[in-house]
Every structure is written in structure tokens, then in C-alpha cells.
Design brief:
- This is ABC transporter, permease protein.
- Pfam families: BPD_transp_1.
- Belongs to the binding-protein-dependent transport system permease family.
- The chain is mainly α.
- The protein contains 10 helices and no strands.
- It has one domain: MetI-like (MetI-like fold, Orthogonal Bundle).
- About 75% of the residues lie in helices and about 0% in strands.
- Helix 1 crosses helix 5 and helix 5 crosses helix 7.
- It is globular.
- The relative contact order is 0.15.
Length: about 220
């Protein structure tokens, strides 16, 4: 079970890193009244309301070997997203991005504007404002969203199996390993995977509870 666990944790790390950076960049890239930002936010949030199978099928349409993007990557790098680790990572990124972005947006929006205006008057750069004003004052809400996003990426199944398949040692994450073990009647392996999934899910939940607990 080491390989599926390593793959799952690697995918979680990649999706977390990309989504957190993307969410912060998107938040500061446009004025809140900008129509383009509203369109991007709509697209980013849509996966919450889509079945994972729909997301997986859309990834096949946009990244498959016959798609424009798929052809470009294959012609330039001889690389295919289908049945690849990268495909699994993209699926996890897409399903968890809406959750992480909402955490960042809600966290940053609830900061007292007086702190932001003071920092601006002092000539603090945008990067330092993020480091020393935004994140310290909103870390509970931001990282609550991050933990929920991690949990969503860690448990991703439907979109992953469509775009990346279920290849042991290559794209088989823990949820897919559990599916394979049950399908083949190997309940001993299935129980091992179940215990690992329950452990990490419980860990994520504990972290979420601690972050959302009201300060005394």
C-alpha cells in the first residue's frame, strides 16, 4: 500500500500548492466588480456542482489525444495526459480548487479594511501585505478551506479513474486501490487501504475542527 499512499500524498501536495497560489493570485488580480473575475470565479466554482464523472469526461475532451491541447503536448513533448500521473493530479486540482478558493476569498474578505488601509498608507508591498496582514488575520478561514480541499483531493475517485485510469504504481491512488481490491475480492488489502483512508480522513477532520474552533 506504500505506492498508492505515496501517489495520493504527492497528488495532494501538488494540488494544494497550485490551488493555494492560484487562489491568492486570482483574488488580487482583478477588482471585485470586474466582470472577467466574476466569469473566472464562476468557472472555478462550477466543479463543486458537477458529478466527478462529468469532470473526468470533460478532462478527456479537453486533454485527450484528439483535443487541441492534447495534440500540442504530444507533438512537442510526446506526452499524453490520459493514463498519466499528471492527469490524476489535474483531476485533483480541479475538484479541490473551488473549496480552497472559497476559503481564501472568505478569509480575505472578512479582514477589517482598516488594517489594509494602514498597510497601504505605510507603503507596504502587496507581497508583504499578503505575508504580514492578510494571512495572519485570516489563517483560520483560509486553512480551513485548505484542509477541506486536501480532503477532497485525497478522496478523489470518479474524475481520476476516467482521465488517469487505474494503473498500479502509476495512477492508482488509495481510493482506486480500494476499488481494485474490492473488485478482485482481496478483502485483506481492501481493509488495509480502508484503515489508511480512515486514518488520514480523521486526521484532516481533527485539523479542520482545531482551525474552526473559536478563539477564547
Amino acid at each position: 500500500m506504500i505506492t498508492p499512499l505515496k501517489l495520493s500524498l504527492s497528488i495532494v501536495f501538488l494540488s494544494l500548492t497550485f490551488n493555494l497560489l492560484f487562489s491568492i493570485i486570482l483574488y488580487f488580480s482583478f477588482n471585485n466588480k470586474n466582470n472577467l473575475k466574476k466569469i473566472i470565479e464562476f468557472i472555478v466554482t462550477l466543479p463543486i456542482f458537477l458529478p466527478p464523472s462529468v469532470i473526468g469526461y470533460m478532462l478527456i475532451i479537453f486533454l485527450g489525444k484528439n483535443s487541441f491541447i492534447g495534440k500540442v503536448f504530444y507533438n512537442l513533448f510526446s506526452f499524453r495526459f490520459i493514463f498519466s500521473f499528471e492527469g490524476a493530479a489535474i483531476a485533483a486540482i480541479i475538484v479541490s480548487l473551488p473549496i480552497i478558493y472559497q476559503g481564501v476569498k472568505v478569509g480575505f474578505d472578512t479582514i477589517d479594511k482598516a488594517y489594509i488601509e494602514t498597510a497601504q498608507c505605510l507603503g507596504v508591498s502587496k507581497l508583504n501585505m499578503i505575508k504580514y496582514v492578510y494571512l495572519p488575520l485570516s489563517y483560520r478561514k483560509v486553512f480551513s478551506g485548505v484542509i477541506l480541499g486536501i480532503g477532497r483531493a485525497f478522496g478523489e475517485f470518479g474524475a481520476t479513474i476516467l482521465i488517469a485510469g487505474n494503473i498500479p504504481g502509476r495512477t492508482q491512488t488509495l481510493p482506486l486501490a480500494l476499488y481494485s481490491a474490492i473488485e478482485s475480492g482481496n478483502y485483506s488489502s481492501a481493509n488495509e487501504v480502508l484503515i489508511i483512508l480512515l486514518f488520514f480522513s480523521g486526521l484532516f477532520l481533527i485539523l479542520y475542527i482545531l482551525l474552526t474552533k473559536k478563539e477564547s
